[in-house]
What does this fold into?
Amino acid sequence: MNKQVIGRMATIAAISILAGCASQNINRPAPGTEQGQPGHVYGTQPGAGMPPAQPNTGQPNASGSQSSNPTQSNGQPAPVKVPPKQASQISSPAVMSLLGSADTLAKAGHMDASAATLERALDIAPRNPFIYQRLAAVRLAQGQTGQAEQMAMKSNSLSNNNPFVEAGNWRMIAEARRSSGDSQGASQASARAANFSDAASQYSQ
It folds into this structure.
């Protein structure tokens, strides 16, 4: 098995973990709320391509000044809104069922069937960035690097600068570019992935 195939299969495994197990039912949204409101929860402008602002902690920022920390009417610090980390947090039961089927098919090597299943999920939730992320991973495993990058970029454009989503997408874009012989582009994508990973890590502090 050559290095490219190993890299693609590793990407599939990483994205399966990143997106969450399809059988999970964590923070299921109420009926009719398939997707978070664009540009409202944690992002600035959808698809802006830059990591979101760091959560306000009240600690000195890079310039040495104290960062502001929004407070509630009772004087307590307002809780930081954490972006969804996995598909189960914003997806309906129907979408999660299809994602589970797509994962099973992909792990069995049935990439065409997995992609077709993900397309069905997109018919239900066309603005769900996690579905495009899974589809990007499948296209990458199929060796369709251009399609993989396109799907990952589409996921980014719908993510509202969600660092958990964009970190994984930029890692896939780096792998797609590397597989296509674009080492410079791969390095740039890897740097973007690292930036978003750093941004995501702030939510756990």
Notes: Residues 3-25+82-204 form a domain with the Serine Threonine Protein Phosphatase 5, Tetratricopeptide repeat fold (CATH 1.25.40.10).
